[in-house]
Write a structure and sequence with these properties.
The chain is of the alpha+beta class. Helix content is about 25%, strand content about 20%. The chain has helices at about 30-40, 50-75, 100-105, 110-115, 150, 255-260, 260-265, 270-275, and strands at about 5-10, 10-15, 40-45, 90, 125-135, 165-170, 180-185, 210, 220, 225-230, 240-245. A 7-stranded mixed β-sheet has the order 2-3-9-6-11-5-4.
Length: about 280
C-alpha cells in the first residue's frame, strides 16, 4: 500500500466552524453531491477547527479512562466498552460520556449533509463509536458493508441508502498505512458480492484505496460502500476517529437508543429529541 494510485486524499474543503451561525444553504455543493452519488463517499477537509479537535480528543481520552476504570472494578455500565489492548481501544455509545459528543450528534454544519444525502424529514441518530490506536499492529482486512443482516443483504440485489456514516478525524492521517479507512469507490452500487479472494486482504480488493486526510476532516459514506480499516504498519502511526451513524426516521431504533438511561433523554432539548424515536420519551 501507499503508492499514489492507491491513496485517496480529501480535496473538498470547508471553512473552519466555531460557535457562530453558519450559512449552509449551499451545502452540499453540486460537485459534492455528484461525488458522493458516484463514489459512495465524500471527504470534507477543515470541517472541525483545531481547537474543536483538541477538545474532542481530550474528551475521548477521559471517556476511555472512565470505561477502563469501570471495567477494572467490574462495575456494570450501560455502554459496551469494546476494549482491546492498551494501544488499541474502541468504545461505543458516546453521547452520554461528554457534552461535546452529544453536541456533535446534531452539529449544525453536518446536518445539511445528512438531510441532503439521507433524508430531508428529520433523520434520526443511529449509533456512535470511537477508535484510539497508536503504533503498528497486526490485523487482517475485515471488508464489510454496514447494517443488520450483514449489511442489509436481505435487500439485495441493490442495497438502498438506509444508514449514513460520518467519520471525524481527530488525528493527522495524511500518511497511509496507519490504519486508515479503506474504501472501494463506487462499490455501493454493485449488485455482485465480492469474491472470497477479494475480501482476503488489503491489496486484493480491486479498486481499494486508503483515505488520507488531516485532522479536522470528516468522511461521509453510504452504508453499502465496501470498507475496512487498512494496514497499520507505521511505527509512528496514530488513528483517532469518531464515527456517528444516522438512519431514516421510519426505521426501528438501534440498540444504542435503549442503552442510555432515562435521565439522558430527560435532559435533551425539544429540538434535539427529534434525533431519536418518540418511544424513548414515553413513560
Amino acid at each position: 500500500m501507499g503508492s499514489a494510485e492507491r491513496v485517496s486524499t480529501g480535496v473538498r474543503r470547508w471553512a473552519t466552524f466555531g460557535h457562530e451561525a453558519v450559512d449552509v444553504s449551499a451545502v452540499p455543493s453540486a460537485d459534492e453531491r455528484y461525488s458522493f452519488e458516484t463514489d459512495g463517499y465524500l471527504v470534507v477537509e477543515s470541517f472541525l477547527g483545531s481547537d474543536h479537535v483538541a477538545r474532542l480528543r481530550a474528551a475521548l481520552q477521559r471517556a476511555i479512562a472512565r470505561r477502563r476504570e469501570l471495567e477494572r472494578r467490574g462495575t456494570p455500565h450501560f455502554a459496551r466498552p469494546g476494549m482491546e489492548r492498551t494501544g488499541s481501544t474502541r468504545i461505543f455509545y458516546l453521547l452520554a460520556d461528554d457534552p461535546l459528543f452529544l453536541e456533535l450528534a446534531d452539529y449544525p454544519p453536518v446536518m445539511p449533509y445528512i438531510r441532503a444525502l439521507l433524508n430531508q424529514n428529520e433523520p434520526h441518530f443511529h449509533a456512535s463509536d470511537a477508535f484510539w490506536e497508536e503504533g503498528a499492529h497486526a490485523g487482517p482486512a475485515r471488508w464489510h458493508i454496514d447494517g443488520p443482516d450483514h449489511g442489509f443483504r436481505n435487500l439485495r440485489p441493490r442495497v438502498p441508502m438506509l444508514e449514513l456514516k460520518i467519520g471525524y478525524f481527530l488525528s493527522d492521517m495524511t500518511q497511509p498505512d496507519q490504519g486508515n479507512l479503506m474504501v472501494v469507490p463506487g462499490s455501493h452500487k454493485t449488485d455482485v458480492e465480492p469474491t472470497a479472494e477479494a475480501l482476503s486482504g488489503f491489496d486484493t480488493f480491486p479498486g481499494a484505496i486508503q483515505v488520507c486526510c488531516p485532522a479536522g476532516s470528516c468522511v461521509i459514506f453510504h452504508n453499502a460502500l465496501w470498507h475496512t480499516r487498512g494496514p497499520a504498519t507505521r511505527a509512528d502511526g496514530r488513528r483517532i476517529m469518531l464515527y456517528y451513524a444516522y438512519e431514516h426516521p421510519w426505521m426501528i431504533g438501534s440498540p444504542e437508543h435503549t442503552a442510555y438511561r432515562r435521565e439522558f433523554y430527560a435532559g435533551l432539548s425539544g429540538t434535539r429529541r427529534k434525533l431519536f424515536h418518540d418511544f424513548l420519551f414515553r413513560p
